[in-house]
Every structure is written in structure tokens, then in C-alpha cells.
């Protein structure tokens, strides 16, 4: 099972067995043994190195029903690419994108918390202020 998953992810990434072996720092023959289930007990360190370069995780390689990390090509259509290009052209930095992501995450958390805790009629409603600092 480990071997089949590694091979499927490797092929999806477009890597040859030689390329993945080089990236992960394992021998080509050892990786081949893993993929063909000749070696069916690789160390966690080896699996971690392989999983990293396949944008996956050890749990998935070991057979968990977790899906591997999302492939950028599967999510970012032309509209996303266009929005990102426009933002970069307008001066947004990686730090700006990270800050924006943190803001969205914070807002989602706040909304989930608000939904989980019903308001009592006698308490004063509070508000949160979020300050977004954007590096230039």
C-alpha cells in the first residue's frame, strides 16, 4: 500500500523515480524497492523525506484515508492567477498575503465562537478591533 501511494503521487507530480530519490536523499534502488513493495517497512525518516517532496504526509503514505495536500493546479484557476497577479502588481507582498490570511482565519474563528456561545440578554456586547499592518 505504501509503495502504490508513493508511486501514484510521484507520477502525479511528474517526477521520475530518479528525481524523487535525489530530492528525498534516498537511493533510487531503495525507492524502487519501496514502490514495488519489496521493502515494505521503510523508516519514518525516509517516509517523511519522500512525503515532503510529494506534498503529502506520512499518515497518507501509511494508508490513512486522509487526502494528500491540495495540488495548487487543482485549485487555482485562471481567475485566481489573475487576482494574485493584480495584487502583486499593485504592491502586495507575501507578508501582506499572510496577514490577510490571518485576518480571515481570525474572523472565521470569531464567527464559529459566536455561533457556539449564545448571547445572554443581560450581558453587554463587546466588539473586537483588528489592526492589519501591511508591510511595503
UniProtKB/TrEMBL annotation:
Residues 6-61 form the HTH cro/C1-type domain. InterPro entries: Cro/C1-type_HTH, Lambda_DNA-bd_dom_sf, SinR/SinI_dimer_dom_sf, TransReg_Diox_bact_type. The keyword DNA-binding applies. SUPFAM superfamilies: lambda repressor-like DNA-binding domains, SinR repressor dimerisation domain-like. GO terms for molecular function: DNA binding; DNA-binding transcription factor activity; protein dimerization activity. GO terms for cellular component: cytosol. Keywords: DNA-binding. SMART domains: HTH_XRE. It comes from the Bacteria. The keyword DNA-binding applies. Gene3D superfamilies: lambda repressor-like DNA-binding domains (1.10.260.40). This is HTH cro/C1-type domain-containing protein.
Amino acid at each position: 500500500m505504501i509503495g502504490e501511494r508513493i508511486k501514484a503521487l510521484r507520477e502525479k507530480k511528474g517526477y521520475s523515480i530518479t528525481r524523487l530519490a535525489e530530492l528525498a536523499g534516498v537511493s533510487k534502488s531503495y525507492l524502487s524497492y519501496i514502490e514495488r513493495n519489496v521493502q515494505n517497512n521503510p523508516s519514518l525518516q525516509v517516509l517523511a523525506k519522500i512525503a515532503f517532496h510529494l506534498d503529502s504526509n506520512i499518515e497518507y503514505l501509511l494508508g490513512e484515508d486522509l487526502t494528500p495536500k491540495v495540488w495548487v493546479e487543482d485549485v487555482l484557476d485562471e481567475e485566481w492567477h489573475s487576482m494574485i497577479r493584480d495584487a502583486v502588481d499593485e504592491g502586495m507582498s507575501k507578508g501582506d498575503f499572510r496577514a490577510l490570511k490571518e485576518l480571515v482565519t481570525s474572523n472565521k474563528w470569531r464567527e464559529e465562537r459566536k455561533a457556539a456561545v449564545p448571547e445572554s440578554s443581560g450581558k453587554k456586547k463587546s466588539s473586537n478591533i483588528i489592526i492589519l499592518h501591511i508591510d511595503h
